[in-house]
Amino acid sequence: MNALPPPLDPAALGLVRPDAAGLGALAAVVGPDGVRTDEAARAAFGRDETEDLCFLPDAVVVPASTEEVARLLALANARRWPVVPRGAGTGLSGGALPVAGGIVLSLARLDRIRELDLENLTVTAEAGVVLADLQARVAEHGLRYPPDPASRDSCQLGGTLAENSAGPRTCKYGATRHWVLGLEAVLADGTRLVTGGKNRKDVAGYDLTGLLVGSEGTLAVLTAATLRLVAAPRTSLTLILPFPTLDGAAAAVAALFRAGHQPTACELVEERALAAVGRLLPLPGTLVGRAAMLLVELEGDDDETLLGEAAALEELVRDLGGDEALAASDPAEQRRLWAIRSKVGEAVKGGSIYKEADTVVPRSALAELVRAARAAAERHGLQAVCYGHAGDGNLHVNLLKGDLPAALWRERRDAAEAELFRAVIGLGGSITGEHGVGWTQRRYLPLRHPAAAIGLQRELKRAFDPRGILNPGKIFPGDAETAPGEPC
Ligand code: 2HG
Ligand code: ZN
């Protein structure tokens, strides 16, 4: 069994960790190969993509059907075991970390695309389907499922539903929630729940589908979803727009939407992020030493229209002090330009322990957000590196540890991050745009919501999960931690 105490004491939450007899009862539900308690599995499922955090679960359980999910939740609820639903573990706010021990429930075996309905333009798929596989399957029919987080090649549909995942295309299409017509879910006590369906409109009662999407595994286990599809555009053009000033880049973001452009993506990389990515791959000369760049993706059905739109955009950018654009419509060349944006995370985080703040502000406050991030970091002797989805006002701010001793890093990190989030709220923003509150942002929830709104959300949690077995310790602040995460 676990040598380390879990950081949240399950007993304080009214929960119990499964003992050997309990694990035997689980095996009776999912079969002996559906339960893993070996060190390797516990270590692998004890971490996700969130910084350097790791918390060992007591067991990893891998059911093969919704029926098995229902039976194992009924058992866990009766015995008050913590249950942490998990997709591929690509989350960035610790949503899938078993912080109170207990069971990690992997949905990986629920991996069927149940139906592609070409009449209604919907697809119904199970939680364990890898997002890129779903996208490829609908693309065979000239269709698109628009949500496209950076983790598309490994993340599972269920994780994207639980986190209401977003990514670069959100400025045109909206996040995952906009594309979900219905859900199949299992409640904490094992009750199966079906919400919505294939109707494009349905205002009968509260919107449970909308509530469950983005509930971070705390209200129910999502096992399948019916999703809306659209026709895929036939052609695209990628533009890189270098700027000598941050304010110029920020002004261009506001101006291009005001002028009626509707890019599929509008991404920003500021100078420190550019410098970091320049250490990983060769940057085009025009980007070296620039204060910022925008990456804009235009999509449509004919090249001529896109070229006309690109020319208008370039003129607008020049008026705001921007430099000459780089453009690509050839897929290989487009991938090369996109790499300058998509490799930033790897470049920034590769060299240092870090803390990521997933900030979002109204688009008009983008430049102020970057300045606030830099100021908060510098006041505490740290460096902030910013990049992300400028079209949504959503920037990922990475605070870097560098070679600071661990204790000093933790102290400075916490102070700088709190200061940053206070500034973000002052700008009318929020404490997370797309990565979720999870474990790492929960202490900041009271900055974002008044007590009455948090109280109401806690009541919802109690209504869905009266014993609090589902993903304990997530979203809500205030549960006592007994220890920090341990390396494992
Ligand atoms: C992105 O926008 C993703 O690239 C990941 O949201 C952000 O680097 C990250 O952590
Ligand atoms: Zn992002």
What keyword list fits this structure?
488 residues; 7-stranded antiparallel sheet; Alpha-Beta Plaits; 16 helices; Uridine Diphospho-n-acetylenolpyruvylglucosamine Reductase, domain 2; alpha+beta; 5-stranded antiparallel sheet; binds zinc ion; binds (2R)-2-hydroxypentanedioic acid; single chain
Reported CATH architecture of one domain: 2-Layer Sandwich
Distance between the termini: 14 Å
**What best-fitting shape do the alpha-carbon axes yield?**
globular
Structural class: alpha+beta
Uncertain parts: none
Strand order of the largest sheet: 15-12-14-13-17-18-16
Mean pLDDT: 95
Q: Mind telling me the C-alpha Rg?
A: 23 Å
Can you list the ligands bound to this structure? (2R)-2-hydroxypentanedioic acid, zinc ion
Q: What is the CATH topology classification name of one domain?
A: Alpha-Beta Plaits
The major β-sheet equals: 7 strands, antiparallel
CATH top level class name of one domain: Alpha Beta
Number of helices: 16
Helix proportion:
25-40%
Q: What is the number of E strands? A: 18
Bin the strand percentage.
Answer: 15-25%
